[in-house]
Structure formats: structure tokens, C-alpha cells
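JOB MANIFEST
job_type = single_chain_structure
chain_count = 1
residues = 261
[input]
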Amino acid sequence: MSDVFEEVEENLRSERWKHLFQRWWPAAAAIAGVAVLVVGGIWFLDARKGWSGAEASQAYQRGLDALQAEDQSAAEAAFVEVEGAGNGPYRALALMQRAAFRLERGETAEAVALFDQASEATNQPLISDIAQLKAAWALMDSGSLEDVTARLSPLTEEGRPFRFEAQEALALARLQHGQTDAARQQLQALTLELELPDSLRQRAQITLGLIESGTAASIPGIIEAAGRAADQAEAEAAAAPRPGATAPGAQAPAAGAATDH
């Protein structure tokens, strides 16, 4: 009986880490989302100065206005119009907006496909790298580590605009899949980066602390383990504590993401 209670207690500690992890990756995805809006604003100002993509810029602005008015149907129609305007950067931004709608509906595969199209629509790293980062976050829960790694690794190279965010995402993906030592090394290297933003440095340090304390060691298979422990406890003693009724990871990533993995 004592073994059952110990297992339940261990899984409860693991769930606390899982919930912390789930709070972080939407924050990272939100950073990328903010960057998308900034980039969109830059391109919109360029269009105002006589850039050849006036038609695309106007349609994109209509989409943003519709989003502000919480009219998703009109927004999506405007972003589809942008895609037909033949302007690469605006087409990429519109595809990412549509991908966000898919994520909100839980259509991860379709969202990732749109992010991939967005990445291929422009040769501007500031936009294409965001698209790949958001695709990786979207796949974080459902995709394989190999797929997530293949998407993130090129983004971590020197000179890439979001290399620090990609390094953090790669470390968390490895941690989620049980590669604790690799995740630790990645995070330690990240904290040594002189240009690393303070908020990202703090998150990396907190994660390293969790790893060192052993809290993060049982992330792989946490849902299965929690369910098994709960069943055993319920069968052997009605008074046994149970993990929370909502399984970790049940809630899909927010639009700025990717699991946005």
C-alpha cells in the first residue's frame, strides 16, 4: 500500500512540472506571435512608402481590422485574399494567421502545413524562421522528437534571428522526450549567451533547477503513469489521494504557438 501512495505522490510532483512546462511554451509562442505583428507592421509601413505590394498590404490590414473586431470569418477571408496577391512576405504573414485559426480549432496537422507554406513563401529570415518556430511549438506535444529537432536545429545557428528561442524550444523538446542530459547541456549553453534576453535566461535557469532537483525526471509517460497510479490507489484504498481529474497536456497550444510542438 505504501508503494502505491509513493507512486501517486511522485506523479503529483511530476504533474506540477508538466503544468509549469505547459505555461512556458505558450509564453514562448506568444513571443513569436508578437514578433509576427511587429514584422507585419514593418511591412505595412514599407507598403505605405510605395512598395509594390499595396494590394496585399491593404488586404492584410483588413484582416487585422477584422481580427480586432473579433470577426474571424472576415479575417480569414481577407488573409486568403492576401495569399492570392503574389507578395511573398505578406503571403507568409497571412498563412501564419490562418494557421493560428487552425490551432484554435485543434487542427494541428493543418496548422503545421500552413506554417510550412509560410516559411517557404518568403526568403526573409525574420518571417520564415518565425513560421518554422511556430510549427515546431505546434508539434511539441504530438510530433516526434526527430521532426521537432529537424525543424528547430537550423534555427539555432549563429546569425538566425530567433536562435535563442529555438534553443530553448529544442531543450524543452528533449526534456519532454526524456533526454535530460542533452536538455541540461543545451540550457547551460543557453545561459552563457551574452545576448540572451533576461526573461529567457530566467526561464532556462528555472528549468535547470528543476532538472537538478529531479522534478523533471519523469516527464516521459507522465499521463500513463498518473492514470495507472490512480487506478491502483482507487482499487486498494478509497481514501488514497488522486492526481487531478484533468490529464496534463489535454489543452491544445494557443495560436501564437507551437505546442506551438
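[summary]
The radius of gyration is 21 Å.
The first helix runs from residue 2 to 48.
exit_status = 0
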